[in-house]
């Protein structure tokens, strides 16, 4: 019995001591100060100039300045000359005075050329790996590849590039801005009419466009024609001469374009052209952007807007993939290009307002094709007008869609009715 009591007492004493020990440990943990951070790593001074070292670079302890100097000298195979006796003192203060002696001291300190080359190859290999990953991610499918090919060919065959044109100039009203130069206006309106016809030809070759209803084809053409014309002329901007070149090679200065009819719209058009330059768009991107402008489901008075949106989707994807593959290091090119569509629409709206002013400034009437493009849709023959059971009357745009011959005078086109079978209403 006594032994049992002794056992119980001993066990109780042990638990009590253990409890107190745990309590002391907990208090010690709560009250003990946090361990101090490890001291910063100390390096020997730069072996070249004795400045504060940032670590071991190319085999020796070196400062950032000498590290960068040695790397650039090796990568660019620089050859320096000492203007003294090739024994200049190199320290923190004098290190920039003699590049020859500084480089020699880098070598004497133990810096290695091979370390620079290996470091460069590692970075290059990483960049190449990233580039390959991007290229694999943005791969053109067979369907998108075909769309890109068709759009690019259609753009090039309806819009020759600047290098294909034989430029010529005119001295007409080149000195100062005037209200309107009728000679330049006649030439400009003639060229504009031809350019509109080329835009119609381009539209017909956009995949799926001719599968839309005739009314929707005309609505889209009328809404986007000026957008595309402005985009096209702005890609023929020559910044160092501040000129734009038209499709027959006529090259006009900013002043001449103002006097040809652009008026107050001139500076805005030239500003837009300047904003396109950093994008460095090629023919394929210009063609795809033109097609996206054309096939927009948000245009007013469309009969089948959802069908138009379906046509636009692969065009958007094609431009995104193509531009991303062409410029792996410029991921924002695609959204920047799309933002230009908003700018184009703003300029086009002001262009339509400008035409109203031109009507009061020029003698006679506007060329019919230009007038039809810019007039209000409700006032024109832009939808099918049901006639006899065997045909219907169409507008000038529709005649272009069906390759009908236009009766062309020197600066204008005359309206004629065109009969078409009801089977051709698509």
TrEMBL record:
Pfam family membership, one: zf-C4
GO biological process, one term: liver development
Domain Nuclear receptor stretches: 43-118
InterPro entries to which the protein is assigned, alphabetical: NHR-like_dom_sf, NR_DBD_RAR, NR_LBD_RAR, Nucl_hrmn_rcpt_lig-bd, Nuclear_hrmn_rcpt, Retinoic_acid_rcpt, Znf_hrmn_rcpt, Znf_NHR/GATA
Molecular functions per Gene Ontology: nuclear glucocorticoid receptor binding; nuclear receptor activity; RNA polymerase II cis-regulatory region sequence-specific DNA binding; zinc ion binding
Alphabetical list of SUPFAM superfamilies matching this protein: Glucocorticoid receptor-like (DNA-binding domain) (SSF57716), Nuclear receptor ligand-binding domain (SSF48508)
UniProt keyword annotations, A-Z: DNA-binding, Metal-binding, Nucleus, Receptor, Transcription, Transcription regulation, Zinc, Zinc-finger
Main location: cytoplasm
Keyword rRNA processing carried by entry: no
Cell compartments where the protein resides: Cytoplasm; Nucleus
Listed GO CC annotations: cytoplasm; nucleus; transcription regulator complex
Domain NR LBD: 143-377
Keyword DNA-binding: yes
Highest taxon, organism lineage: Eukaryota
Family annotation (PANTHER family): NUCLEAR HORMONE RECEPTOR, RETINOIC ACID RECEPTOR BETA
Family affiliation: Belongs to the nuclear hormone receptor family. NR1 subfamily.
Subunit structure, as described in the record: Heterodimer; with an rxr molecule. Binds DNA preferentially as a rar/rxr heterodimer.
Protein name: Retinoic acid receptor beta
């Amino acid at each position: 019995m006594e032994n049992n009591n002794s056992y119980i007492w001993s066990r109780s004493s042990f638990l009590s001591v253990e409890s107190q020990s745990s309590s002391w440990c907990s208090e010690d943990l709560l009250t003990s100060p946090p361990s101090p951070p490890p001291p910063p790593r100390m390096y020997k001074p730069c072996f070249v100039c004795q400045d504060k070292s940032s670590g071991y670079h190319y085999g020796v302890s070196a400062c950032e300045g000498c590290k960068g100097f040695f790397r650039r000298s090796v990568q660019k195979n620089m050859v320096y000359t000492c203007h003294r006796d090739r024994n200049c003192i190199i320290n923190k203060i004098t290190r920039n005075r003699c590049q020859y002696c500084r480089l020699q001291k880098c070598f004497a300190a133990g810096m290695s050329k091979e370390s620079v080359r290996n470091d460069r190859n590692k970075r290059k290999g990483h960049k190449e790996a990233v580039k390959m990953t991007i290229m694999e991610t943005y791969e053109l499918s067979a369907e998108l590849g075909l769309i890109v090919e068709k759009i690019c060919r259609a753009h090039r065959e309806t819009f020759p590039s600047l290098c294909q044109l034989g430029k010529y100039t005119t001295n007409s009203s080149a000195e100062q801005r005037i209200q309107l130069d009728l000679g330049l206006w006649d030439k400009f309106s003639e060229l504009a009419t031809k350019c509109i016809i080329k835009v119609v030809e381009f539209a017909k070759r956009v995949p799926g466009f001719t599968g839309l209803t005739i009314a929707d084809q005309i609505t889209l053409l009328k809404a986007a024609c000026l957008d595309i014309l402005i985009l096209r002329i702005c890609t023929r901007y020559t910044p160092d001469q501040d000129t734009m070149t038209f499709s027959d090679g006529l090259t006009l200065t900013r002043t001449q374009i103002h006097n040809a009819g652009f008026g107050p719209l001139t500076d805005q058009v030239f500003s837009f052209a300047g904003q396109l330059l950093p994008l460095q768009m090629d023919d394929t991107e210009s063609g795809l952007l033109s097609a996206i402008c054309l096939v927009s489901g948000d245009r007013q008075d469309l009969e089948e807007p959802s069908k138009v949106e379906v046509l636009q989707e692969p065009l958007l994807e094609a431009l995104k993939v193509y531009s991303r593959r062409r410029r792996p290091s410029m991921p924002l090119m695609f959204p920047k290009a799309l933002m230009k569509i908003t700018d184009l629409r703003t300029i086009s709206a002001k262009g339509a307002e400008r035409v109203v002013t031109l009507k009061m400034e020029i003698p006679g009437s506007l060329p019919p094709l230009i007038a039809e493009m810019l007039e209000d849709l409700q006032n024109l023959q832009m939808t099918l007008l049901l006639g006899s059971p065997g045909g219907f009357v169409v507008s000038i745009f529709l005649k272009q869609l069906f390759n009908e011959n236009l009766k062309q005078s020197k600066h204008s086109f005359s309206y004629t009715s065109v009969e078409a079978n009801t089977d051709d209403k698509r």
